[in-house]
Amino acid sequence: MVLTVHLNAELSELRVERSGPKRRKVIGSTEEADEYAPSSQLDPKFGIDVEDVDADRLFPSSEKFSGTGSSSVQLPPRRMTLTYRMKDDLEALFQMTRDASPPKRRVRSLRVVRATYGFGDASGDGFGGAIDLLPTRRLEFAHFQRALFKLSRASEFDRES
Amino acid sequence: MVKGMRMWISESLVPWTRQQRSPDNGIFPLVLDKINVIRDRRYVACGEIESLMNYFAVSKGDTDVCVVYDGTLSGLNGSLWAPYFPLPTLQSHLRIVEPGTYMADNDVGECFHDWILDARVRKWCGIDLTSILRSETRVWERWERCAMGLRPSPYVSFRGVLWLKEESHGDPSDPENVFRWERVELNLPGHEDCAPHKSWVSKRRSDGSLAADSISFVDDIRPTGPTEADARQASQVMAKQAAWCGIQDATRKQRDVSQTPDAWAGYVVHTADGDVSTMVEQTKWVKAKAKLQWVSNQLESGSGVEYKPLESIRGFLVYVAQAYPPMIPYLRGFHGTLDSRRPNRTKDGFDGTFER
Fold it and tell me: How many CB pairs under 8 A join A and B?
């Protein structure tokens, strides 16, 4: 429930309304320049609403992009269709962020072990790896295929078994 | 620096002199307070004005606002240019620590306003204060310092902070200098004596210990040292040098040296218990989960997802993934979705130009 409230607050910050470029016009005087930024752009509460603002002013030449290579300014679409792998990726990301608190990730350590045997393979969308370590003799194995993440870990793995 | 860092002006500006609308009554006192502060400190002052900048307030928590001076609407940002510059990442920070390193936190106060605005640009940085001051007559003043919302401000500020770093680090061969170092040590995988707890490239003192150093994320400075005393001295030297250069050192935000300090640029780096470990702040973690939930809800709705929020979420997750690299492969769905609007894309959004 708390998350939902937080989420809504986030979305209110993220939402940006934008329209396409207006017709181009050479601005020759201050009055004409004012026409391009009418007072209706001002948000009654916090400030400016960029809707109906000339796109040339909002996106200077260095920020423009043209998706088709034509000379016209092409703004990104308002809505996108999610790609097929998004669902799998989200599932994996949910798994990784399932802890209530951010996990501490060890980057470097004074406690060092020596790898005596290593194995790894990558093919297509999948990857797998196995490693046997001394002196803890711990085996770690990771496998993901089409973004389905699985991690199995066995501490104190018995080499003889 | 006294006259202001020279800015790049790409084209002349068409004057923009739209009258500033008064903020909503609910936030009027908060905006007025902010305006009074910059006037009292002479960050804005009277002078020749050719063009105005619109300003507006954005919420900062529940009880405060941040006033942004919009250089885009007036066309000013289109007339100014600033070069690309890289910011340090979490990996940059990890280069200057190893297990046992002590870290401090210095903060530059009002980082943008510390820097004098280029004299040629000031006339285009006017602000209309008539409505906010409830004045009968027109009140126009102009920025004398780099403003929030002006395109070159981040570049100017960060460049200034890097100058501060260079100045404060001083002569590396001076034995009295806390930032002294003798050699650059390579500790690369494949070396016979490679030590996994050390960084691949590091500055070393004559006794072999890691040299004191610092890293700056714009206004967030993190001095480090091999011992508690060295880290404290490094912090002190940087604060004094900042004061000498006329840059505000916000002592109220300073934190004592520690092996388990609070966040730097949103990342938490600990060097205690024989490990160097990283994580993100709790707030960032909760935020990441909330954003993922939002995307999931959009996915279930089946009506697609708005471009801008998704782009913002992608950026945030890239930031979080710096602390958790295993997340990186799973951001492909975001990259692919956002790039699918481009031509010659495959069904998963990748560039299919050379696909056979």
Answer: 223
